[in-house]
Specification:
The structure is a homodimer of 125-residue chains. A two-stranded antiparallel ribbon of chain A has the order 1-2. Chain A is built from 6 helices and 2 strands; from the N terminus they run ααααββαα. The first copy, chain A, is mainly α and 125 residues long. Chain A starts with 19 loop residues before the first helix and ends in a 12-residue tail after the last helix. Chains A and B meet through helix 1, helix 2 and helix 6 of A and helix 1, helix 2 and helix 6 of B. The first copy, chain A, binds a DNA duplex (20 and 20 nucleotides) through helix 4.
Chain lengths: 125, 125
DNA sequence: CCGCATCCGTTACGATACTG
DNA sequence: CAGTATCGTAACGGATGCGG
């Protein structure tokens, strides 16, 4: 039986199937979660407001929700777990860190296949 | 200047930034698009109803919308472009096929990191 | 101030019925 | 069989409030 994981506002993670791709998309299949991981991978630990200042402009409620879910799933954690929230940066866990090869492959694909549509794509961010 | 691509119902693809990860998520960052690619990679050409019968149960309007967008972006195409729609299977283009390493990395990550939450995850589908 | 939570209008999704 | 139309629901996105 799959364990129940809930998002901030009581939304349960629904595992649609036993397929690993489908299961990954059940938690990362949106426009923001992997950008949070990307920021942490490329820039190191980030505070709440660091994320807000990232180029794609995530809104505050979505950010709080995703940080909560990624924390529940043990992909990220606070640098100082016992410290106050203020200026307490998030960092990747081993599990989150291990998404790096996936993101590298995705970025490579994007550079090779989307430049026709979005010519300004850069080499790496 | 980025080229304008529209989804079935006039929704424009919005390139949030020049980051390759972000750009990939602008088109693949949802719960269904990569499952369509997965089905084509693992099972070969698929008809409209083949997709509907896949384990995660996509609904018809979402499927039609995603097939349209992926076709516009040249990730998939009809097997018989000039043929009638009926029984005309979709297949991957070179561009779609080259998402294979990304999906393999994602599946590996899922098997290694999500089994605690969704223990029924299988080796590969 | 910073890290969220709440409110609310808009958009996307999802189930189902329906059409060529 | 391959989609389209409709419509209720859920998620998003921006503005704003508030506590530590």
């Amino acid at each position: 039986m799959a364990k129940k994981i809930k998002t901030k506002l009581d939304k349960e993670v629904d595992w649609r199937s036993v397929c690993p791709v489908s299961s990954a998309l059940d938690i990362l299949g949106d426009k923001w979660s992997l950008l949070i991981i990307r920021d942490l991978l490329t820039k190191g630990p980030q505070t709440y407001s660091d994320f807000l200042q990232s180029g794609e402009h995530i809104s505050t409620n979505i950010l709080a929700d995703r940080l909560h879910l990624l924390t529940c799933l043990n992909l990220i954690e606070k640098s100082d777990a016992e410290g106050i929230a203020r200026n307490n940066a998030y960092k990747l866990t081993k599990s989150g860190e291990s998404l790096k090869p996936t993101l590298i492959e995705l970025a490579k694909w994007s550079q090779d296949n989307l430049k026709f549509y979005n010519p300004d794509i850069v080499e790496i961010v």
